[in-house]
Amino acid sequence: MPATPFLTAAFGNPATQKYTTGGISELYLIPRHHLDSTTDVLDARGNVVAVSGMSVEATTKFVQIGFVEGTASYEDVFTTGANKFMTQTLKFSVNEGGQTAGEVANQIILTPKHAALVKRKSDGKYYLLGLTDGLAATESTQNSGAAKEDAATASFTLTGSNHGHAVEVIMDNTALSALLTRIA
């Protein structure tokens, strides 16, 4: 685990993004062990179907990741015989370069497990990934771009085996906002 605090400031620049297609419009990460507790809404079989409240360690918040439009997505894949486990995969690319970007990329890669909060473009609702067992970085690439005017890009894939699908977060906006560090 990194010796320094995890992402003390928001990362990336979504200011020029145009959210006109399906996918994710906002993405936030936190080390899974900093997500202290959740208030779960269960179905008749005891499966978590939503989160109506959550708390994080006092010194941490979910940190917004400003990703390149069209690069952020997640999926839940059920594997037969996996005893309610879903493979959750989150992918995104960040258009940043330089030493700071490299340090942040290393923190994302070296953090053993993440919880991710995503806002879907299609319905404007927030969903929590990695609730039970977190998401680990399984792939990361950095490139310089092919053309002279291309910016450097870092791409990430976080994957984890968790009970059930990503769950909807049904907290009120004020309570949820208190848990987020947004890009200014």
Layout of helices and strands:
Elements: E1 24-31, E2 35-42, E3 48-56, E4 62-64, E5 73-78, E6 85-94, H1 98-110, E7 114-120, E8 126-129, E9 136-143, E10 153-163, E11 167-169, H2 173-177, E12 180-181
Parallel strand pairs: 3-11, 4-12
Antiparallel strand pairs: 1-4, 1-7, 2-3, 5-6, 6-10, 7-8, 8-11, 9-10
Strand share of the residues? 35-45%
Describe the oligomeric state of these chains in a short phrase: single chain
Based on CA atoms alone, the radius of gyration comes out at: 16 Å
| Overall structural domain count | 1
Query: What structural class do the secondary elements suggest?
Result: mainly beta
Give me the side-by-side strand order of the main sheet: 2-3-11-8-7-1-4-12
Low-confidence blocks of residues: 15-22
Q: Can you summarize the main beta sheet?
A: 8 strands, mixed
Number of helices: 2
Write a brief caption for the model.
The protein is mainly beta. Helix content is 10%, strand content 43%.
